[in-house]
Amino acid sequence: MRALVILLFALGAATSAHAAEATAVRRLALLVGVNDGGPERVRLRYAETDAKAFSTVLSELGGVLPQDRVLLTDVDRTGVLAGFDRVRRLAEGVRTAGARRVEVLLYYSGHSDDEGLLLKGQRLDYGELRRSLEGLPADVRIAVLDSCASGAFARKKGGVSRPAFLVDSAIQVKGHAILTSSSADEASQESDRLGGSFFTHHLLSGLRGAADVTHDGRVTLTEAYQFAFHETLARTERTQGGAQHPNYDIELAGTGDLVMTDLRATTAGLVLTEPLEGRLYVRDAVGTLVVEVQKQSGRATELGLAPGAYRARREWDGGVSEAAFTLKEGMRTPLAPGDFLGVGHEATVMRGGGGGMFPQGRTMLPVNLSLVPSMSTNTLRAGRAQVENRFALGVVNGGAALGGGLALGLAGNVYDAEVSGLALALGFNTSGGDVDGGQLSLVTNVAGGAVRGAQASLGLNVTNGDVDGIGQLALGANVARGALGGVQAALGANVTTSDATGLQLSLGANHANGTMKGVQFTLGVNSVATAARGIQGSVLLNHAPSLTGMQLGLINVGGDVSGMQLGLINVADTVHGMQLGLINVSDEVNGVPVGLVSYEKKGQLHLEVFGSDVQLTNLALKFGGKHFYTTLLAGIGPDDRFQRFSLGLGLGGHIPLGSRFWVDVDVAASQVLSTRDPFSSASNNMLTQARAMLGFQVMPRLAVFAGPTYNVAFAWGEPEFAKLTTLPVRSHVINADTRMQRWPGFQVGVRL
What we know:
With about 750 residues, the chain is mostly beta strands. It contains 7 helices and 53 strands.
């Protein structure tokens, strides 16, 4: 009986704790989808569908209860404002019910311009939209706008991006975050293939687990945005509307991890096993595309999906395969490479006839002897019929195809179709089709199709298709108007107009107009249009919108960098890894920036005013990342009748201690100059300092700090070594021209 009482008491306590947790955090959502932007706007097809899909994800994974969701479709300005009123009343109700923190998420899909939302011919100005959002009684407000020119709403006001919200009730976060599908002057685009907009599709894929880079089963705001940004940009670069750049404005203060979705909230799930790799498209039973993810081998990925039947399509290594599976209640279903079956490609033919490698209707003549194509044994024996040779010898060889043989041309070889073998000439080689084998010449090689072998020349290699095999070798330039799988080596330039896998090596320039997987090395410029996975090495400049690997050069420019930038000047958007250089510039670094000057847009930028035992009045400008900074120092002493001033530079680290306290530790070097004559021997000195500062954040833009310093001053060539401090010092004579003083000191100041 006693055991039963204890058990009932424990169950009651657990239930009470669960209820308290449930009421500690409440998230409300207002979801708006409007296809009709007015008579002057093309009617959208998927805005309402996107809003419903977003509502589903919030319900399954985002912790939003059915009664806390307001879904509006096909509404005008009045309807949206009425929706805000409903959410405001809901927020007031849950606050009254005892919720410790209230979070509100606004999602809008539809038409807009640089002034506001366009709803069935009516405009809701961004100013009114922002006031409506800020008027909601919530601690955290999240807005996601998927519409043209929506970046105008995300006015960047210097907000600091901090980790994210939702599941953990112990976090302390307040403020707002605004995500938009495009910049202020760009169009947002829909896709019939996706059945929705590019941005919302990839954002929802990320929220379902594709963005979970930490593999902790939760997707944060930062993870979701970065995933949606890069996928949207990559998928819209070649569309008719052009590249689409999502935008953001984040002003959050506090501590904790702002979680958008919890993958463990679903009663079923899909686990992409470690060996599985490739781009996967997962559709539900009715054919709706619910998740798109680029799966890398080596780590498992979990996707949060509802129970039901699904089909996955996999694109990998040039092939396509499919798998059907069913997710069951209470189970995590694994998906492995062996679950996929190959899907045959659709048979195609070229317009105007033609067929496979050796189509019917082509005459087989083993040997061709020629002066020029019109004066050859091919012409004498076959007239104008298509001819295929095994061996050709002449000044200029010509024909329909060279099948698995050899063509030796003094001036050149001209083939209308495929070359399967080796074409060798002192002048030029041209092929109207694929090349399986090689083209070797002193001047030019041109292939109208793919090259599976080698093109080698002293001049120029050009192919209108892919290059697979050894590659293109030239002293002049290599151009592949398709993908590269192999090597491009030139003293001049290498250009690939699609993806490149392998090596681009030149003294001039390398460019891949797609994704580069491998190595680019040059004395000049390396450039990648989409993404680089591997190494970019250059004496001058490396550029890649997205990099996984390493950039090594004088100047490195990257977008999203996962790896390392090593150079004199490093520039990037987001860095997951290290920047090592003289000057480092980035939007955000999740890692280590090491440099003489490091500036991080989302990092720290502070002005400090302080006094010390050396000089009464000092200014310091601190800038850098979240944990590493550069400081510029300047000081002057009214206590010594302004007889000297100092200029210096320092490097240090920032250590947060909870929400209010922090410690900065750095080393700095300053030159103390005479105000009368900065270039006199009295200015021939150096002050080095090791400093520790304990700070207290009084308010967001004001902090006070104090701490000890240890000072070492050197003077050269000056008979008298004036003290720089009123505190006791220890003096040392190093040699006849060099003296040193050292002493412990202090500093006290405020940070703005």
